[in-house]
Amino acid sequence: MNNYQLDDLESPPSWEAAPELDKARKYYELGYEYESATRLPYNMSKAIKCYRAAAMLGYPPAQNGIGFLHATGRGVSLNEEIAISWFSKAAESGHSGAQLNLGVMYAEGRGAQRDETEAACCFYKAAMAGNTDAQEFLGQALESGLCGLSQDKEAAAFWYEQASISRRK
Questions:
Q1: b/e map of 56-90 (b: 16 or more CB within 10 Å)?
Q2: Could you tell me how far CA 11 lies from the centroid of its own chain?
Q3: pTM of the predicted model, to two decimals?
Q4: What does the pLDDT read at residue 133?
Q5: Which of 10, 37, 77, 99 could form a disulfide with 91, with the two C-beta atoms 3.0–4.6 Å apart?
Q6: Which residue stretches of 37-115 are H helix?
Q7: pLDDT, average across residues 10-31
Q8: Core vs surface per residue 91-128: b (16+ CB within 10 A) or e
Q9: Please, are residues 71 and 111 in contact by the beta-carbon 8 Å criterion?
Q10: Secondary element (H or E) of residue 154
């Protein structure tokens, strides 16, 4: 399998250009088809090229996906600094999955110096956006005093309940 270095971090175009959004989404969906082999033969190399094209057009799900590939080394070089860059781009656009992933990177000191405060902020943003995994993690962090948060059983119960509500939707 080829390893692609996806570190060309040019500024994506503005989201105001609707045709660019449609184009980016189509690249992302084509990449998914290659990766999942649902309608096209499995081809991770082509999937990565499609994801990269969508990410460069500023599509947050693709930016998060490219970050995840670099964080795990799946089909690309393992490079946590590049992962942080892509997660940050998607998180700035409000992508809750990227906010959660960025929080994990900061909490574990992967790709950047460990920063519990920044991690907690990322988890909170993702939880507020309705990300169930972030809501559960925030509940655990508050219950156990992780990520520099003070133990707060009442707040933990609130986030567990939010996660439960989100899972039922």
A1: bbbbbbbbbbbbbbbbeeebbeebbebbbbbbbbb
A2: 18
A3: 0.85
A4: 96
A5: 99
A6: 44-56, 60-72, 80-92, 96-108
A7: 73
A8: bebebbbbbbbbbbbbbeeebbeebbebbbbbbbbbbe
A9: yes
A10: helix 153-168
Number of Cα atoms under 13 Å in the Cβ half of residue 11:
3
* CA–CA separation, 71 and 59 (whole Å): 18
Between CA 14 and CA 20, with CA 17 as vertex, the angle to 5 degrees is 95
Domain boundaries, the chain: 59-168
Beta carbons of 70 and 88 less than 8 angstroms apart: no
| Burial class of residue 35 (count of CB atoms within 10 Å of its CB; 0-12, 13-18, 19+) | buried
For residue 13, the 8-state DSSP code is: P
> Could you report the per-residue pLDDT of 107-158, keeping only the tens digit for each?
999 999 999 999 999 999 999 999 999 999 999 999 999 999 999 999 999 9
Pick the CATH number of 59-168 from 1.10.10.10, 1.25.40.10, 3.30.457.10, 3.90.550.10: 1.25.40.10
- Alpha carbon distance 89, 63 (integer Å): 7
Q: In one letter, which amino acid is 22? A: D
Cβ atoms within 10 Å of 167's Cβ, excluding its own = 10
